[in-house]
Structure formats: C-alpha cells, structure tokens
Specification:
Elements: E1 3-12, H1 17-31, H2 38-54, E2 63-71, E3 75-82, H3 103-110, E4 113-118, E5 124-131
Antiparallel strand pairs: 1-2, 2-3, 3-5, 4-5
C-alpha cells in the first residue's frame, strides 16, 4: 500500500490538547475515507498525554506535533513528536492497583506495530500503525491480522 500524508497538527504541551488531538485525528481519518477511528482515538490520547507528562513538551513553551499517515483506507499511522527527554518510552507492567502506567501497553496491544525514533534535534517521535476497519463478525477493530 502507498503511504499518504493526511495531516499534521502542532499543539502546546498542555493537558487540554489531548481531547483536541483525539477529535482532530479522528476527523482527519474519517474525512480521508477510513471507516473506524476508535484505535486512533486511544493511540493519540496515550501518546500525546505521555509526551506532555514525560518530556520537555510539558514544560512552559513546549510543543507536541501529531502527524497522520494513511495506507489505503484500512491502515493508518500516528506519529507524535515531543521536545525530548532523558529517557525513552517503554511499556511497563502495572499491577491492579496502579491508576497509571498502562498507556504504552495499550498502544502495544491495539497497534499492528509501533516504535520510536530519535531526531537529530533531541526530539523523539513515537509512532503506531493500526487498523481503521471493523471486523464484520465481531464488530471490533482488526488489530494483529491485517491483510491475512
């Protein structure tokens, strides 16, 4: 499938942008012909919240960039670029009583693939690819078996 750039948004590193990014990404995907944006909503929420909470993006004047890429109308990729941190994102194991710390594990579960790349400026991009089509038999978004 051919990669197609669908949009880019740059937000201040404030918590109020998480729902705005979620709605914006969903609107972009649905407008481009993707049939389901539920996975996108969850992924962008987790990645933007992480960027704001754990990187320099969440400090005064920090920014978070969100790029949306489509592959046909069945698969998409979200890329979230932050202002950098001393650590890299890593899914962690949370126990039942933890109220936080599950975001990257959720991203890992619902994406077909995900990863990160450091940019020369110290910024970090975390990305995830995922299905944007529903499985007719279950009504759930396809996750691991794209093209199977």
């Amino acid at each position: 499938m051919t990669e197609r750039f669908l949009g880019e948004m740059v937000f201040p590193g404030d918590a109020w942008v998480v729902p705005v990014a979620r709605r914006s990404v969903a609107a972009i995907l649905l407008g481009a012909g993707h049939r389901d944006a539920d996975n996108a909503r969850l992924i962008v929420s987790e990645l933007v919240a992480n960027a704001i909470q754990h990187t320099a993006s969440g400090r005064g004047g920090g920014l978070v960039a969100v790029d949306v890429v489509g592959f046909g109308t069945d698969v998409a990729r979200i890329e979230v670029t932050d202002d950098g941190a001393r650590t890299i994102p890593c899914p962690r194991v949370s126990d039942d009583l933890d109220s936080r710390g599950r975001g990257l594990r959720l991203v890992e579960q619902i994406s077909t693939t995900w990863g990160m790349r450091r940019l020369g400026s110290g910024h970090l991009t975390v990305w995830a690819e995922f299905a944007t089509v529903m499985c007719e038999a279950t009504g759930n978004a396809l996750t691991r078996e794209i093209g199977a």
